[in-house]
Amino acid sequence: xxxxxxxxxxxxxxxxxxxxxxxxxxxxxxxxxxxxxxxxxxxxxxxxxxxxxxxxxxxxxxxxxxxxxxxxxxxxxxxxxxxxxxxxxxxxxxxxxxxxxxxxxxxxxxxxxxxxxxxxxxxxxxxxxxxxxxxxxxxxxxxxxxxxxxxxxxxxxxxxxxxxxxxxxxxxxxxxxxxxxxxxxxxxxxxxxxxxxxxxxxxxxxxxxxxxxxxxxxxxxxxxxxxxxxxxxxxxxxxxxxxxxxxxxxxxxxxxxxxxxxxxxxxxxxxxxxxxxxxxxxxxxxxxxxxxxxxxxxxxxxxxxxxxxxxxxxxxxxxxxxxxxxxxxxxxxxxxxxxxxxxxxxxxxxxxxxxxxxxxxxxxxxxxxxxxxxxxxxxxxxxxxxxxxxxxxxxxxxxxxxxxxxxxxxxxxxxxxxxxxxxxxxxxxxxxxxxxxxxxxxxxxxxxxxxxxxxxxxxxxxxxxxxxxxxxxxxxxxxxxxx
Length: 483
Fold this sequence. Notes:
The radius of gyration is 28 Å and the shape is globular. Strands 2-1-3-4-5 form a five-stranded parallel beta sheet, sandwiched between helices. Strands 7-8-11-6-12 form a five-stranded parallel beta sheet. The chain folds into four domains: 3-118, Rossmann fold; 159-305, Rossmann fold (3-Layer(aba) Sandwich), CATH 3.40.50; 309-386, Helicase, Ruva Protein, domain 3 (Orthogonal Bundle), CATH 1.10.8; 427-482, Homeodomain-like (Arc Repressor Mutant, subunit A), CATH 1.10.10. It is 46% helix and 12% strand. Helix 3 links the parallel strand 3 and strand 4. The protein is of the alpha/beta class. It holds the Pfam family Sigma54_activat. This is DNA-binding transcriptional regulator NtrC.
């Protein structure tokens, strides 16, 4: 039995050499070229079991080859690699029929894994052509490893209508991802309708989502279409889904189960012809334990989970983002500001509690308030200091001053354990530390529920009797009611 043959096309000789050696060691035959025309000739002659092609080559764009290869040999899988590590590249590669997209520089183990998977996977028809859009219009920016994973997930999801749940801190770009899923997906010709659950009064959410009939309630003088109807044929983006009240959660679950809904005051079912994308900055599993979010609704929405990384997890993207925002804010009015090396380093050591939105605001502020073209670290530091001084206590402290709960606990534990080395008796450490954490946690939860032990137990995920015992053992005062 002959070994599978891999056709490699890349105008970089060193990449061709590295791939040829790695694939050879992996048990494959390899034919490599620096020309798209040679690759196409091999494909026409029936050569190869798999293609690995670069995007930019001297005589033709590798992405343009994919549809031709798929038409001529639909069983021949194509893997695309590119140093242009953008969302658009990933989407184009996927929607033109590529099996996988690999950003450069790539890991050779990953290449071998992709090759093995591609050879073992039956080819599928190309779903659709890409909607025209230029690279400059792309709103998601970044070439870090974590963003490449996001791009690949988005690219794969554009060929389906699966429900997506996006989780990420405020300012990470959840709506931008939702818009990308819509703009490059099957429903791009339909409307994109965004609803922020946190911005709608509780008593109006059902009417907002499902619409209402004339006379359905006081003030309903005419029929009004809800967001589900407005988004028909397109995408409905439910932002901050964790803030949806329980009664609306029940209605939404019914719609997802039945595929139809009725307006408030209506009786005729209306088909829900929308793709649902939800987003939240909350931990919905914790909300389920607290009894504020339905578990069955969570699983209906969490078909494809996506986690957007905070900016502090992709600091290598900060220079690219900062330059983009400086260019965008200049808008032809005066010179474009440039950050010097020290200023850029200062940006990369800040923790960015407001994430990409905070970085964008900072660049806008610098452009507006500082006329000099070269921006130094002193300007960046002063603007960050001004912003953090206005932030709520405990938020926005950059340069290592902000810390997570885990970091705070670790810092206190380190101090606690160090005291044992200085002669303090150390025994029953576990019970002592847990008691130190439990007391303020339970006290603050009781304060938040105004002494309601049933609600507090639900929030904490404890049995009510267990909570009562802890209150008694830890001697926690319970004050009922209050302002």
